[in-house]
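User: Please predict the structure of the protein below. I'd like the answer in structure-token form so I can feed it into my own downstream comparison script.

Assistant: Understood. Taking the following sequence of 440 residues as input:
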Amino acid sequence: MVKTASQKREKSEVTVEPHNKHKIAIIGLGYVGLPLAVEFGKKYDVTGFDVNEARIAALQAGHDATLEVSDVELAGAKGLRYSCSENDLKAATIFIVTVPTPIDASKRPDLTPLIRASETVGAALKRGDIVIYESTVYPGATEEDCVPVLERVSGLTFNEDFFCGYSPERINPGDREHRLTTIKKVTAGSTPEVADIVDWLYASIVTAGTHKAPSIRVAEAAKVIENTQRDLNIALINELAIIFNKMSIDTEAVLQAASTKWNFLPFRPGLVGGHCIGVDPYYLTHKAEKIGYHPQVILAGRRINDGMGAYVAGQLVREMIKHGIPVLGSKVLVLGLTFKENCPDLRNSRVVDLVAELADYGILVDVHDPWVDAQEVRDEYGIDLCENPDQRVYDGIILAVAHEQFRAMGAAVIRGFGCEDHVFFDLKSVFGPAESDVRL
């Protein structure tokens, strides 16, 4: 039946709940969702939902395995309860989706978690509800990919029966200084009125303030270029490191000298992993190619950063040959597996590329990382961790992640894992140039 103008007008007059009556559901309780649920749980009635039953059980017991939220902080969120049951979402008036947005083996966006979360929300959606997405996507994904799912499952009409918002996550795993409440939050809504409500909601917990973007697409684009910019800057430094290494110039010394200029950007070379910097650029390039533009600079940066594992392995092998150390059958210790220092986050760790490359040379590789769970590493990457590396047995040692434990050991203790003649590759330039054989 065709709707009359008066019927359409009646539909569009649906209003959302007053601010103080909102009941919030957070969909996905990982590195992004849990801190958000905890902060909202200090002021609102919040349901934290996750399909991982073990994760829910641990949170109900008062502990966060990601270490992003302390046990004390969890206990302080009096309005927060945890659930694996979709029935517990039906009372919510605001749904916030914080699920991962990974890439597949072909480096294409994998929206499967986002679509499934949208289906879950759609089943609980009511007239007047708001669905806010925080997951990183390409511009247009919220309204072009997620909204149709919400409409199909709920039977409701977008911007008449329900509304959407977007507020991209800016969580930095392991960072104790820049937290959810101290990082300015970008917000957006599908109508001006909803944009105001979304902005008000986040402003109620984010002390650093908010920035209301003019549209959801603008907010999506702002998020995806944040990490693309960082990726390109690191790619530039990685390429410079390769050039300087060929010229026998210490890259870290060059960067320290250049950093004396006030506007020099302090990026450092290394393996670029994690769920953001190593992934988000592919979301932007995917969308660009769909609209007929083939990105050049962005993909060039990705190629450089994706190739750094092979480069580091090659540099170690080259130095071992210089030392007269037979490569085939040698033993190498890799210190660190997480994608960054001082956190247990294994997502998209590029250290695994390094390990695979070394194995291709016929090298026996041990990996030691005090921050991660051995079973999780085995399940995710098929790697058996070395819990206690032996002394004086390794032909090569690579300090791949600058965990505080490795810094505290000092170069002498780390070199103690090596044979009498060995190569120490300080990938992160944690120690001075005289304390290692190779630096990136």
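That's the full token string. Residues 1-13 have pLDDT under 50 and may be disordered.
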